[in-house]
Amino acid sequence: MNKITLLGLYSYAHPADVSEKRVKSTVELLRKNGIEVNFLGSIADNNDSLVQQTRRKLEDTIGESCSIVLVYAGWSESTGVLNIISDFLHLPIIILCLAGYKVKEGLIAPAAAAGASLLRNSLDSMDVKYRCIYNSIDEEINIAEVLRLINISASIRKFRHTKIASVGYACSNLYPFMYDGALIKAATGIHVDNLELLELKMLSEKVPDENLKYFSADFKKRFKNKGKIPEHEIDLLARYYIAASEIIEKNDYKGLSIKCGSGPGKLLGFTPCMLLSLLGDKINAICEGDVYGLLAQTIVNMLTGLKPTFLEIFEFYKESVLMASCGFAPFSLCKEDFIKIYGHDWGGCGGLMNVSQLKTGNLVVFNLFKYRGILKMQLFKGNGKTPEKFQEEGWDEHEGPMIPSLLITFDAGIEVFKKNIMGPHYIILHGNHSDIIEDYCYFADIEIDSF
Questions:
Q1: Predicted TM-score (pTM) of this structure
Q2: pLDDT grade, residue 63 (50/70/90)?
Q3: How is domain 3-159 classified at the CATH fold level?
Q4: Does domain 163-450 correspond to CATH entry 3.40.275.10?
């Protein structure tokens, strides 16, 4: 349960019983929506002794609160509230302005919006991270927006105890896949473990044969109509899937990347496309040792509860871009009527591929990367549809599979995307969730370019 600390505010000239009742109804609304509320009570803006008492209460009770919610029931001077919260301005601040209300004589206007706007000037001057929600006359509190901001705040806190891992480092020694673990920890709170391929290989060799049978039976049942699959490929996949799952569960990883062509493909005799596709339905997964891409997926997945995945830039059309992944995609993001797997012999590597069609529709396309010593986020809104039939170069006799892919158009236009490309990989998320990503970056102090 997400925990917040809440303080009510109103003017000494306003009736205390009315103002406090309005604040308490907001507290109850949050609690009914599953929020744990550490309620400090309400203060009038001329009560200096109560300000000091409330400050001490805040220090004693804030505990694991992810944010401070200030509920303005009316006009209130900013000095008192700043004195109360001054030691906790590192937490996200959510300001909720209650609208006026009507009685038979007409509208009662406590001017909460004026008091909150006064506070905003001070918070901006001190570079404090906050969001302000103004309620409108004759409208209910936008509880969905409040809950969204609380969830972002709670996720930022959870990230401090979140781990992801890369098995093998920087596929093919590509510079964009080399990562700065200290920068990632400082900016997001997330820790990155780097594991050796040998660790995965040694663990896979200890998997009992009996476990392979269970995996094989389930795998064949799931893909029973997809043609004959070599038994040795299933056994190899089973060993590495069971081993990787054990590593994930033991360390409570929220995301995993595995070095690709220059890793298992070169050293272990198989590419991890199908392995990552299966793991991608359990946790966040990406290939080629792309830690920044994995980081972006993990953050957005934990913020939204939805499954992102990566695609790579392949070809440009006049108004769109073909983006694809070479045999990897979480099956939960594939069209159920087009689930297909394929033997991976491209480039001389073994293994199995997911060559299913991806789901289409509105997308958020984003990319998290290191830029001149800081983390930056790019975000594009667009739409993805199934592309024309194509195959990657390198298959014998041009009879290779059509890999998971989308033809993507952008709201900002293809030229804007071209001019701002930062690396080969971009993460896609179905739906329009750009506001959540933008607010997270704001609170986490990550620069964002939104197009």
A1: 0.92
A2: very high
A3: Rossmann fold (3.40.50)
A4: yes
